[in-house]
Specification:
heterodimer; A: about 260 residues; alpha+beta; Beta-Lactamase; 2 domains; 5-stranded antiparallel β-sheet; 10 strands; elongated; B: alpha+beta; 3 helices; 5 strands
């Protein structure tokens, strides 16, 4: 398969997944593959069934919610050790499973040099409050560093607010279905709250095709049609959103600031 | 927006991997030019995303001229046609794409100017 064919295949999978970014992750070694796989779980705020398709054709279903791996509901892939295979088909996973889960996923990553992920909402809500495994715990079981390269997964919202300085005249934080004013007052905040309401209703929803990227670590910037209008932008990171308004419309400045903080 | 104009627009922007001209009202793709042949579902999703973004701005009582969505895997720019507000140019570019150049080129092509005029 040529590079071009691989890229075409990646876009087909991305379209099937409803996402607008390439869905294939290529890794250099099994440890790197496991870290990248755990990051996908670490980004999953809403409950969903995530299917990991490894490059050798092996597929593994994961129930994920609240940034935790709750269960491996499907049958165990062939070739795993008995202790690893026993992790599959159970209702939930607990803290003592961290190491065998890490070893099982590492073994699966070792079978290929790439994986794809697709996700779909589950019919019933997944309860991640009483069990499941945090990706960091799985990584720690094999002394892997889950936070390496964290900049590529979004910009710290506080750092963004601070770096923008007085250019931001009003800002609100949307998190856990709550909204809080973090900068500004009066008419500026009133205007921004109107924006935040529309953004929350229309864009911060899985129906918006670019939602997954924005949710985990992206930037959305609206530039006004009218001269003298103000710029409104939304920065997302791990399910929290900073909605902010600048005094002057300067799209390029906002994009450059976000890119600089994201290390792009 | 003719197919040739769309092609020339993208040819003038090495960062741009896909340019789509879309009808926001009917949410249909009117034309596309890309480095690769993209599946129709992908183009439709881009068109839907553009419509939802501009509807959000209108609902917030502050119609947008253009909207950017950035992430570590790419930059997406959406530009409403001022002469036909129900139509928009959608671009998918590299993560570090030159935004200023993209904005100038998009405005130029939407005004009916050639790619070389930006």
């Amino acid at each position: 398969m040529s590079d071009l064919d691989r890229l075409r295949a990646a876009f087909r999978r991305a379209a099937a997944d409803g996402r607008l970014d390439p869905g294939e992750t290529v890794y250099g070694d099994p440890g790197d593959g496991l870290v990248q796989l755990l990051r996908r779980i670490d980004e999953a705020v809403l409950g969903r069934r995530m299917t990991i398709g490894f490059g050798d054709g092996t597929a593994v279903d994961c129930l994920v919610s609240g940034r935790r791996l709750v269960a491996l509901p499907g049958p165990a892939p062939a070739g795993l050790r008995p202790a690893q295979a026993a992790l599959f088909g159970r209702d939930d996973l607990s803290a003592e499973d961290a190491r065998p889960v890490a070893e099982a996923l590492l073994a699966l990553c070792g079978r290929a040099d790439r994986f794809t992920t697709t996700a779909e909402r589950t019919e019933a809500d997944i309860d991640a409050t009483s069990g499941g495994l945090a990706p960091a715990a799985i990584a720690a079981a094999l002394a892997l560093d889950l936070d390496a390269g964290a900049a590529a997964r979004g910009v710290d919202l506080g750092a963004l607010l601070e770096a923008a300085g007085p250019a931001i005249v009003a800002a609100v934080l949307l998190q856990d279905d709550e909204i809080g004013v973090v900068r500004g007052e009066g008419a500026d905040v009133d205007t921004l709250l109107g924006w935040a309401e529309q953004v929350a209703d229309r864009v911060l929803t899985p129906a918006f095709p670019l939602f997954s990227g924005l949710e985990t670590g992206g930037l959305l910037a609206f530039s006004p049609a009218a001269a003298g209008g103000r710029q409104v932008f939304v920065a997302g990171r791990r399910g929290a959103y900073l909605v902010a308004m600048t005094a002057d419309a300067d799209t390029v400045a906002v994009l450059d600031l976000w890119r600089r903080l994201a290390g792009i | 927006m003719t197919p040739q104009a769309l092609k020339e627009f993208r040819a003038g922007l090495p960062d741009c991997e896909l340019a789509v001209y879309a009808d926001l009202g009917s949410r249909t793709v009117l034309g596309a030019d890309g480095a690769l042949r993209y599946p129709q579902e992908y183009l439709d999703a881009l068109c839907l995303g553009a419509a939802m973004l501009f509807e959000t701005a209108v609902a917030a009582d502050d119609p947008a001229d253009h909207v950017f969505v950035l992430g570590p895997t790419g930059s997406r720019g959406f530009f409403r046609n001022p002469d036909a507000p129900n139509e928009a140019l959608c671009c998918i570019c590299r993560p570090d794409a030159d935004a200023a150049r993209l904005i100038r080129a998009a405005h130029a092509v939407l005004r009916g100017e050639g790619a070389g005029d930006e």
